[in-house]
User: What shape does this take?
Amino acid sequence: MTRGTQISATISLLFTLAQPVLSQEVASPLETTRENLRLWLETKQKEQLEINDWKNDKEVLTLYKEGLLKEIDTYKQQIADAKVLASAADQESTNKITARDQFIAAEKLLSEELRKQEEQLAALIPLLPPPLLKAAKISVGVESLKKNLQLPLDAQVDDVAKRLANVTELMAEAEKFQQGVNVHPELHKKSDGNEYNMQVVYFGMAIAYAVNEDSTFALVGTPTPTGWTFKESNDLAPAIQKLIVTATTEKDVSFTPLPISQ
Amino acid sequence: MKSSLNLLLVLASACSLVHAQNDSVAQSKAKLEESSKALIETQKEQADLRRHLYKEVNELDDQVLTISKELRQLERDEALRTTNVKKLDKEVETRKTQYAYTVGLLNQYSKALISRVHPSEFQIYREPIGQIDQSALNSANEPVKEMQERLKVLTLGIKRLGEISGGSIFEGKALGFAGKSLDGTFMIMGPSVYFAVKNGLSEGICPAQDTGSNFPAFVSINESGGSIAKAILTQQGTLPFDGTLGKAIVAEMKHPGGQNKALEHVMLFGDIAKNMMFDGWIAIAICVVMIAIGWTVAARKIIYLNSIEKGNRDFLREWSKVANDLTTLERNNEEMSSAKMSETPAMKRSPFYEIYHIGSEEITNRIASTKKGHKGLSGRSIQAVRAALDSGLVQLQHKLTDGLVYLTISIAGGPYVGLLGTVVGVMITFAIISKEGEVNVNAIAPGIASALLATVAGLIVAIPALFVYSYLNNRIKNITSEVKVFIDEFVAKMAEFYPQVNEASAPKFSNNDDI
Assistant: This one.
């Protein structure tokens, strides 16, 4: 039996014994006592309840606090990680930006230098032999080159890679032409005003010899800054005819002596 | 009393009860107050603790909120940064690709340029292009610097285009005969490159074949007569142009100065012999032995026949002195001979001389065996002398034809030995081809050509041997015929000077008093 129960039982016994004896004025203290005891009991119960509540609350709050602390730790760790990551990412970004800037600078340099090369190459265009200039690849390339040169550097239609490809292709074609003995039919005017279909043999970009079908009209061609010029040299017709036969049929393989200047 | 006492007791009890009640009320009140106070204190204390704890929790909560906000911000920043980095990445990648493409174009052009220039231009362009490539490679991590280096190739290419247009001239070195380095001047006229040696002693053309060094090969052209050097020096005059893009140069290289083409064919045998297999060499070795024996025999036989023909001529010259007086043979043969004939060493090798001595000896012996005073020969004796002479002829024939069998063997056997070598060689060539599974004329041709070399060797043995054999045989026949004629003449003379005993009244003498 608990102490509370004992107290309650004692109080009840006292009230039972005292009730028949005491008058109206006597019952009042008992009542009061009872009331007090009840109130005391209630108070004690409340206190206990309060203690229990606090205990529970404390436990819950403590757990919650611990959870929060853990969460804070986790967040802090995550923040630290994120900051490290951000720092690394910043470094990476910086590197990438540096790389990008370098590529931009290289492209700018290429664009500027290429412009100079384009200008120099454009000056060499008249030196290219006419059959080479008429070739589809070259004619398109030359046209593109001229267009690019007409526009300012920052308003180029073609990107720098395309311009560079065009320049290298033009040069490559010219170099290939230089490597060969090229025979092409061309129309040329004689001093009498008549025009003849002639076989023209080009020794690369150095010199050209032309002869008509019946070997009565011959020309020697050389490149000049304004283009190729052909000078009449009819006495060379038989030799040029022989050279063209050798070049086209590869019969009678031998050297043909021809003048290099007229 | 008792009752009073009892009453008193009751009253006392009642009073005490009342007092007790009053005490208990007071006590209960006190207890209540105490407990109320305790409750209030407890409540207060707990409220304080709770408040404190809540405060802490709230603070932590706030802290969590703040930190989480910060974390979210960082996460948002990270996401943004990731997006930006990705964007940047993409941009860098695009620029890098474009950069790599442009650098690749320049690099490709650099390599193509060196492959398109003439070997004579290597000494101008190979080193700078190599340096540019190396510098560009060293600056691979610095796009601007690398681009700067690579662009130099373009400058070089454009400069070259300007120079080669209309022909270009430059000083340099070329490799002459046996790789000798020659200083001189080049003139580039398209694909044709001319070179004049510095001292002016030689001029020619540089073919487009790469020699593996920085210098081109130089083929001297003798027919140009100084025109190349003059053209290079003055940029005027004539140059020999090759319309076949190098074939004329190749022809000039093969036959410098119009060298005989036959020599080229002979030299081809050297190439063919290189591919010869062991069995072929055996056949050729046998052929060589046959050639050696056959030609030795032929040489010795020719020398022998020459010597006996010379002896015959000498003998016939002396023979006329004794031809009309064979009776002198009755006397001492040697004395007679030395008296009548001037014998030379060549004459002693003559078959006529041998036959003459056989006949003379036989006659002497037979006359000596007959009765004294009888200087004739019976028919049987003459036949016996003739038989002895024929025997001498047969011996002579044996001597003349001795060794000719080696030539006959060469004629008959040489081609067969060669053919055997060829057949075995062809067989092995085909066996090798079938094993390797390669059907290529370039793989078959050398083997077949080498195998056929054995047949050539066999024919080289047989054909000269055939000609020499025919020649020697003809000469031997002629000599034999002459000896036969001489025997007939000798017998006729013998019958004339030594008639049969019944017929002979007296021996006939010539008008020559010495005999």
